[in-house]
Amino acid sequence: MRWIDVPHAPEVKAQWRSLFPDRIPPALLWKGIEGVGKTAAAWMLTKALLCSQGDPVEPCGTCRNCQLVDRLEHPNLLLLVPTGGKGSLEEGVQRFRQTLLNNPFLLLSEWELALSGAKGSLSLGVDTVRRLHEELSLVSPGKTWRVVWFWHAETLTRQAANALLKIIEEPPARTLFIFLTNQADTLPVTLRSRCQTWRFPPLSKTQLEQLAGAPLPTPMIILAQGSYGRLRRLRDASMEKSIRSLQTWLRTLLQPEADPSPAIEELLQAPQLGEVLVMGAILVREHPELTVAQKAIGMDILLRIAEGVEANLQPALLLWEATLSLKEKWKQPRFLWEWIPV
Questions:
Q1: Is residue 223 a part of any domain in this protein?
Q2: Do 270 and 313 share a domain, yes or no?
């Protein structure tokens, strides 16, 4: 991991330098949508803090501490991640290390897929926080720092969040807690009030293209919604195929003579159909030719059937219901859905 890989590096470095060494708070709350680089920034900040040779902001990258942080294996870096389903906390953390090394912009939905049987059940529970208490009390960090990540802190259960309050109020020496979240408002006020909050805004088109290393078509920018994590997912071969199927289906809704059957059959093959339909709602919202009323109707229908798909209702019936309804409601004006080629 390098600062060049962190989208908001200049802002993070400037803010961190202003705090070091005497104004470092016990806890940082970093909020922003998924995939904007909060985890990557925490990675580099941790590397700088634990580096034995560089300055407080620019780690040397070659010392043993830097190498251990690069592999997420430094003993003074504690990773608290939401888990669910089967497996121990240790197994979950080890899998998280391996997954994050392959994708520093990991999305929560991708983490769910990496944990078999965990869909819809991920949480940071009180047992994880109790384990943290034990680890922090066993050994004093001495002259070095300890850094604790709460990845997707919004998954903290109420009991876990309450168990954290005392340790945040009376933090161990030279210990920094970093809460990474895309839903800060779901955390208890008592916890948020004890943290210094940093905001990570959505990435611009320029930032997304710099990270991608190539110009991007408008639909990709729109669907990414300022998140490089989402952009990575959109550029996956299976997801690109699903988006093309989505566009084919949307196109038939604006062509009264078109037979939607092939498009529906193709769309039903999408591995993450609910997610794809949510993307359809985003494209409808941004379409320049639809009226406000048509956008509202289209988004409502698409989001409703996406919820139905996620609830394991029959996707074929839901898609046909949506097709018939939207064909009727989108009769006027008639235009081609040609603005979103992939």
A1: no
A2: yes
Task: Look at the block and give the residue holding tokens 């195929």.
Answer: 241
SS (H, E, C) 285-309: HHCCCCCHHHHHHHHHHHHHHHHHH
Which strand (E) or helix (H) includes residue 282? helix 273-286
Same-domain check for residues 76 and 189: yes
pLDDT digits (tens, 9 = 90+) for 52-93: 887 889 999 999 999 999 999 999 999 999 987 666 788 889
Buried b (16+ CB within 10 A) or exposed e, 299-337: bebbbbbbebbbeeeebeebbeebbebbbeebeeeeeeb
Mean pLDDT of the chain: 89
- Cis peptide bond N-terminal to 333, omega within 30: yes
Q: How many domains does the chain have?
A: 2
Q: What is the DSSP string of 5-16?
A: G-TTHHHHHHHH
Q: How far apart are CA 107 and CA 43, in angstroms?
A: 16
Collapsed DSSP state (helix, strand, coil) of residue 205: helix
Q: Final residue of a domain: which of 153, 175, 201?
A: 201
Per the structure, the complete domain to which residue 91 belongs is given by 3-201
Please indicate, yes or no, whether residues 13 and 155 belong to a single structural domain of this protein: yes
pLDDT single digits (tens) 256-313: 788 889 999 999 998 889 989 999 999 999 888 788 888 898 999 999 999 999 888 8
Q: Spell out the alpha helix ranges (H) of 103-156.
A: 108-114, 126-138
Integer CA distances (angstroms), 102 to 1, 8, 272, in order: 11, 20, 21
Give the number of other Cβ atoms within 10 Å of residue 289's Cβ: 12
- pLDDT in the model for residue 92: 87
Both 104 and 157 in one domain: the answer is yes
Residues 244 and 197 in one domain: no
